[in-house]
Design goal:
This protein is of the alpha/beta class and about 450 residues long. It is built from 12 helices and 15 strands.
Length: about 450
């Protein structure tokens, strides 16, 4: 009997020990997976091939039980911040999240399953898949802000301004030309222009590089981005030839980034909700086009490319643009909130850069905004940072300090420059402004 009791006790103790071990393994595995997920979520590892190395390094660190330490209520890391990788390569406008969270049902759109079934929106319109409510919201917002002429113009909707850019190239390139149409933009130019221009190798057009260096006696399309991406300066055409056609990319011509001086009045003007209101995920852009035939050709491109543009996204964008127009009388309107946030971020990054002799930022002249009445210099969505001294590869230099940026070579400029997004969440931006002054070499 004693032997039976002894064996029973041994069995119970053994079972308890095994269950404890199983629980510990499960808990450790859960903690490891949680840490890995946090790294991917909080640091936005996506979309850029050079980030792969950083991801692997972080995952290796996780496998050794490393972890991201808790943050304060302001979102800044309390300790261990020097080990975090900050991805500011892309222009993901997540800084706008806090504002739109406050709006709740005011900007919420509910769609029934029977709605938006048809391909067609307004068959009398040049752009037959453009929702009338979006037309109304766009024209009203431009009138309120005073940044673009829309009266008597054609509006074409696209899946972001990227699709509209390609549609404009298609519409402006002669279908039977002996040579592809040259496409140029003044350096530093938006890094995606060369990629989007040549991606399909259609034979209709080709990337011809820096507008400052273009001297061919051939037809050309010049892209004028103002304010410019990446450096934030106001731009005018450069080539000024008699065989040129202009496309004006005005994605950042909004009062949180630049003083509005007068309504833009050009043949083709591109806008997008991703930078005007921060809703990049909705993938809605619009072109304001003078020439009806050009608008028709742009519409044809989008029709062939995607058979129109999502009605759900259009309705959502219209709701948001309407809210922006209507809340100008509120204590803190969208543009007022956004301007103050951008101004504060630029104050902080300049303060951080001024603490070190390793970096510099461009300066902008102050001008009076006709929309807000404020007098200020440009507050670009990106910081065009220069590494001073003997640092020739600024992108690589900052990567060694766990700051991911996009180097100048992608913009047709010197590698002493990098583009840094100013539109990230607050915790990422604070890590940036804490880290820059701490870099020694």
């Amino acid at each position: 009997m004693a032997n039976v009791l002894f064996l029973t006790n041994v069995l119970v103790v053994s079972l308890a020990m095994n269950m404890g071990l199983i629980w510990k393994i499960s808990y450790d595995d859960e903690q490891t997976l949680t840490s890995k997920w946090s790294i991917h979520q909080n640091l936005h590892f996506h979309g850029y091939k050079n980030n792969i190395i950083q991801v692997e390094e972080e995952e290796a660190r996780v496998s050794k039980r490393a972890h991201i330490l808790p943050t304060t209520s302001s979102g800044a890391a309390t300790d261990g911040w020097e080990s975090l990788v900050i991805n500011l390569d892309h222009g993901d406008p997540t800084m706008y999240e806090d504002f739109w969270k406050q709006k709740g049902e005011e900007t919420t759109v509910v769609t029934s399953s029977w709605q938006h079934i048809s391909y067609f929106s307004d068959i009398k319109n040049v752009c037959w898949f453009l929702e009338p409510v979006l037309v109304s919201a766009i024209t009203r917002l431009h009138k309120v802000v005073g940044n673009a002429v829309t009266e008597g113009r054609n509006i074409v909707v696209g899946t972001g301004s990227s699709q509209l850019y390609q549609a404009a190239l298609y519409a402006l390139s002669p279908p039977n030309g002996s040579d592809p149409m040259n496409v140029v933009s003044a350096a530093p130019f938006y890094s995606s222009y060369p990629l989007m221009t040549d991606y399909l190798k259609s034979g209709l057009h080709k990337w011809a590089g820096d507008a400052y260096e273009f001297n061919k006696e051939q037809p050309y399309i010049e892209l004028v981005t103002s304010p410019n991406n990446p450096d934030g300066f106001t731009r005018q055409e450069v080539v000024k030839g008699d065989k040129g056609i202009l496309i004006h990319d005005l994605a950042y011509y909004w009062p949180q980034y630049t003083p509005i001086l007068s309504p833009a009045d050009y043949d083709i003007m591109l806008f997008t909700v991703s930078k005007s209101t921060g809703h990049a995920g909705s993938r809605i852009g619009w072109a304001v086009v003078k020439d009806r035939e050009i608008a028709k050709k742009m519409t044809t491109f989008i029709e062939i490319n995607t058979i129109g543009v999502s009605k759900d996204s259009q309705i959502r964008a219209a709701k948001i643009l309407q809210a922006v127009s209507e809340n100008q009388k509120e204590a803190e309107s969208f543009f007022d909130y956004s301007y103050k946030l951008m101004a504060e971020r630029w104050r902080k990054i300049r303060e951080a850069v001024n603490k070190t002799e390793l970096f510099s930022l461009p300066s902008f002249p102050a001008e009076t905004c006709s929309f807000s009445g404020r007098t200020f210099g440009q507050l670009p969505a990106f910081a065009w940072l220069k590494c001073e001294g003997e640092v020739d590869d600024c992108e690589g230099f900052l990567r060694r300090h766990k700051i991911l940026t996009r180097g100048g070579k992608h913009f047709g400029a010197s590698m002493k420059y990098v583009r840094i997004s100013m539109l990230s969440r607050e915790n990422e931006f604070k890590l940036l402004t804490d880290r820059l002054p701490a870099i020694i070499s």
